[in-house]
């Protein structure tokens, strides 16, 4: 068989990520490839770093995009800051808290797990009790925006608790950056990582990370080598650290960084506060439409992420068939539940370029049609009408 160029189908991406990528970002990625030590590429690197600092609301000197997805950013935080024998309090209220625990253990450290029910925020009271019961904890790790459930935890309070007990804070902001406030300096967060494919609406494959001065000092004071050569920030900063002279570390994903640069330019043009407002408004419209169909959300009001909505599957509905119908008949992708929520929820993303009125009304109309096809009784057209009442305010 003669190989042919791959032509992907046109999709509307409204799952847990990736989100739709704007044509400006795709066009930027098609620009001519230059060397990763080219003087003009270095100019662009400095701009990426500056715009990431703006997005993270930080002045941290060590701010860079790791060459790899959000999972690489997560691993970078742990391997640089955690050594064998350390103790780390890990908050688990979904899939990604569990991955943090796995990283701690692979670093040869002890994970002290604070568990909360999936769909509920991390309980600061439980965290404080764990920190008090385990003096000398090296770090507190938690997920700000848990992608598996659609719940937001109180990052400011958790970072403050870590500081009060002499621990570093490691914050997963993969789904939050650009969609809701991520205020690194204001929170006193020490290590924060995100991903390019969620609310930044770039392609997958890059993970913005920022370290506080306290985290950098911890890295410098290590007794052992960082467990990963590729993710060792003491080496990476020689390439990303600033100035015209850069030390070769690895061949950076040049065209992917063009895309991240463009997506950050677009975020700057919109204004990050306006981006937060847009995500909130689209969530309110989606919620109104879901409620008009008689559908509920997993997470209690006040802790819901606007950009990731865990929708409860009605009794008697084949949830997998609904997702297949949306994909095959409408070109629309939504996500399934993970772990204990498998088969119980759909995860509908409103992230970045996928957080628009058109996305909301298209999703509601497609979901309504799929449910009607399974015999669910609901008022036809009510969902879109309810959403539009919110959007037209």
TrEMBL record:
Pfam families registered for this protein in UniProt: Aminotran_5
Lineage top rank: taxon: Bacteria
InterPro entries documented for this protein: Aminotrans_V_dom, PyrdxlP-dep_Trfase, PyrdxlP-dep_Trfase_major, PyrdxlP-dep_Trfase_small, SP_NH2Trfase/AEP_transaminase
Cofactor(s) essential for the protein: pyridoxal 5'-phosphate
Binding locations of substrate: 347
Domain Aminotransferase class V stretches: 33-338
One function term, GO molecular function aspect: L-serine-pyruvate transaminase activity
Entry's Gene Ontology BP terms: glycine biosynthetic process, by transamination of glyoxylate
Modified residues (N6-(pyridoxal phosphate)lysine): 198
Keyword presence, Transferase: yes
Protein keywords: Aminotransferase, Pyridoxal phosphate, Transferase
SUPFAM superfamilies: PLP-dependent transferases (SSF53383)
Sequence similarity: Belongs to the class-V pyridoxal-phosphate-dependent aminotransferase family.
Protein name: Alanine--glyoxylate aminotransferase
Taxonomic source organism: Paramagnetospirillum kuznetsovii
């Amino acid at each position: 068989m003669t190989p042919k160029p791959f032509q992907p189908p046109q999709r509307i991406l409204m799952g847990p990520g990736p989100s739709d990528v704007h044509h400006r970002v795709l066009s930027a990625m098609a620009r001519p490839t230059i060397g990763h030590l080219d003087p003009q590429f270095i100019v662009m690197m400095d701009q990426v770093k500056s715009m990431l600092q703006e997005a993270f609301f930080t002045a941290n000197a060590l701010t860079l995009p790791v060459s790899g997805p959000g999972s690489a950013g997560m691993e970078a935080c742990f391997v640089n800051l955690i050594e064998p024998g350390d103790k780390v309090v890990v908050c688990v209220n979904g899939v990604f808290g569990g991955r943090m625990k796995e990283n701690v253990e692979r670093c040869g450290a002890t994970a002290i797990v604070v568990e909360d029910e999936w769909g509920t925020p991390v309980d600061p009271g439980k965290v404080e009790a764990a920190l008090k019961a385990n003096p000398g904890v090296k770090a507190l790790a938690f997920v700000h925006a848990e992608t598996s459930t659609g719940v937001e935890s109180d990052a400011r309070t958790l970072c403050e608790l870590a500081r009060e007990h002499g621990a570093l804070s490691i914050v997963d902001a993969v789904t939050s950056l650009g969609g809701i406030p991520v205020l690194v300096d204001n929170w006193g967060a020490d290590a924060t990582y995100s991903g390019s494919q969620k609310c930044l609406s770039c392609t997958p494959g890059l993970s913005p990370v920022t370290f506080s001065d306290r985290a950098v000092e911890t890295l410098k004071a290590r007794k052992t080598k960082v467990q990963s050569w590729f993710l060792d920030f003491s080496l990476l900063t020689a390439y990303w650290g600033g100035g015209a002279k850069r030390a070769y570390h690895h061949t950076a994903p040049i065209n992917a960084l063009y895309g991240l640069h463009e997506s950050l330019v677009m975020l700057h043009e919109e204004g990050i506060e306006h981006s937060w407002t847009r995500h909130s408004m689209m969530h309110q419209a989606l919620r109104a439409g879901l409620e008009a169909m008689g559908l509920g959300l997993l997470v209690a009001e006040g802790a819901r992420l606007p950009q990731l909505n865990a929708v409860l599957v009605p009794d008697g509905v084949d949830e997998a068939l609904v997702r297949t119908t949306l994909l095959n008949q409408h070109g629309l992708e939504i996500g399934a539940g993970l772990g204990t929520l498998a088969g119980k929820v759909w995860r509908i993303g409103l992230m970045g370029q996928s957080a628009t009125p058109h996305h909301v009304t298209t999703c509601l109309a497609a979901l309504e049609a799929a449910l009607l096809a399974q015999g669910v009784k609901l008022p036809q057209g009510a969902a879109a009408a309810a959403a539009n009442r919110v959007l037209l305010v």
